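Quick log. Single chain, no ligands specified.
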Amino acid sequence: MWYYFVAHCAYHFTRWFPKDSRGAVRITVILFSLTFIIPQIYVIKLDRSSRYCDEPLLNISVAGIVFTFAMAAFTFLFAIMEPVPWQLKIAFHFFGFGSLILGMVLFASTFASAVCENFTPELYYLCLSFGIFSVLATGFLIIMLPFWLVNYLWPDSVLNRRERRGICYEPVKCCTCLWHI
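-> predicted structure:
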């Protein structure tokens, strides 16, 4: 789920800046998303990564590279496009669901393969770190989900900046980065 989370954060981070000065921020966000590809390709290219492991960590890591490229593509599109078309948003949410499944499979497979730590340590620790990232991102989104649903069912009940009201107005009036819809 961290693939979805990074692209989602990049979308909102880019919008924090004024429209006329987003150029450097866009480049920084895109380069940041591309840096996640480097350690994955490095670990995949190591000879030790192809050794036998009970769980298919190498296969899941290859799928992770595909998702990382998709994450970089969504980050690029979200940083550049204003406004973002609804079709892209729907595709992004399907990507998020696939990212959730991949993250949970990665986390479960990594914990089930403690023996792989001895034979393929780099691959094991890469998968473990990405699995932990996935669980943390999923936890954050699960915490935010009730607020999104309430705001969808009763618009502006969670946060209405124009009228300065809503159940989340007081906690975020000084730091709007804590909330977004």
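DSSP finds eight helices and no strands in the chain.
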